[in-house]
Specification:
Blueprint (H helix, E strand, L loop, with lengths): L11 H7 L3 E2 L2 H11 L4 H4 L3 E5 L1 H9 L5 E6 L7 H17 L3 E5 L3 H5 L10 H11 L8 E5 L4 H12 L4 H8 L7 H11 L1 H9 L5 E6 L3 H14 L5 E5 L26 H9 L11 H10 L3 H13 L4 H25 L1 H7 L2
Helix pairs in contact: 8-10, 9-12, 10-12, 13-16, 14-16
This protein binds tryptophan.
Length: 352
Amino acid sequence: MTPWAVKGEIDYEGLMERFGAEPITPRLLERIKRHTGGLHYMLLRGVFYSHRDLDAVLDHRERGGRFVLYTGRGPAGPVHLGHLVPWTFTKHLQEAFGSKLFFQFTDDERLLIRDDVDEGLAGHWVLENAMDVMALGFDPENTEFIVNTRHASRLYPLALKIARGITCSTMRGAFGLGDESSLGKMFFPAMQAAPCFLASERAGEPVPCLVPAGIDQDPYWRITRDAARRLGYPKPAQVHGRMLPGLTGDAKMSSSQPLTAVYTTDVPELVERKIAEADTGDHPSRCPVYQIRYMLLTEDDDEAQELYADCLAGGMECSECKARLAETVNSFLRRHRRRRSLIRSGVEKMLE
Ligand code: TRP
C-alpha cells in the first residue's frame, strides 16, 4: 500500500505497528470523552483506531493551549461515501474542540502522481468537492481552504524548508519512489506536509496540529514529523481511520473502480442498482453492505446491532438488507444534496 494505491486486503493492525503508531486504547477513549462529552461512534466502533501523539495534543489542551486540525482531498472527480468517513469525524472534532481546520485541495496531486492519465488540473472539481465538504456542517468561520495551485504562496515557503531536508532515499522508503519517479512526485509530499506547520508559522509559537485521515496517508506524516524535529515545529499528531470497503469486495471504496463506489452525485436508481449488485460478505464484519451502514451512516447503536444479529441469525436476506441500505443512502444523499445546493456562493468565497 502507498498513499496512491491500495491493493488487496488491508491488515490494519499490521499497518499501525509497521508505521510505529499506537492503538486508541479504552483508557485514551476515556480521556477523549472528558473533553468531548460523548464519544463519537467512529471512535466507539474502531473506525478511527490508531494515533500518534493524540495524548500530547490533549495534554496541551489541558494546559489551556489550542490546536488546529488539518485534512484534505485530491479533487479528481466526484466525492464518494468513503471520502465522507474522515470528514465526518473531522467535523465532529472541529465542533467538539472549537479548533480551526485547514482543508487542503491538492489539485496538483493527480497530475503529478498518475502517469497514465493527463486531465490537467480539473479545476471545477475543487468547487464541487468543497461543497460536499461544507455540506457536512463545518464552521465556515473556522475553516480555511487551501487550494495548492491557487494558494501556493501560503505553503511554498514551508514546503521549501521541509523539502531541503528530505533525501531521495527517505522518499523511496516512505512512498516507494525510485530512480524512475518524476521530480514532481518527489516534491509533491512537501506541499501536503506544509499545512501541518502553518498555524505555528503564523502564530510564531508552537500550535500543535492534529491530522484525521485514512491510514493510507501516513507516509506523509512520517516525513513531516522528521521535518518538524529539524525545523523546530511541533510534530503533527495523527488519528488514523480505516477505509470504507468498496461495494464489490475491494478493501477500499475507490474512484478507480466506479462500480465499487457510491458518489454523492449518484441518482437514486443508480444507488439502488449499485447496492443491489454489491458483493455481500459471509459475515457482517466482512460485508460492505453492513460496513457502509456501521462505519458511516447509522449512528444509532441499537439499529446497527439489530441488523448485525438479524444477519447472523439468518433473519434478514441479503437482498432485503441491500434494499434497506439503498434507502438509507438515498435519504442521506437527498439531505446532503439539499444542503450542498444552498451553500454554493459561501463556498466560492472560501475558495478565493
Ligand atoms: N492526498 C490526499 C488524497 O489523495 C489529499 C490530502 C491533502 C489529504 N492533504 C491532506 C488527506 C491531509 C488527508 C490529510 O486525497
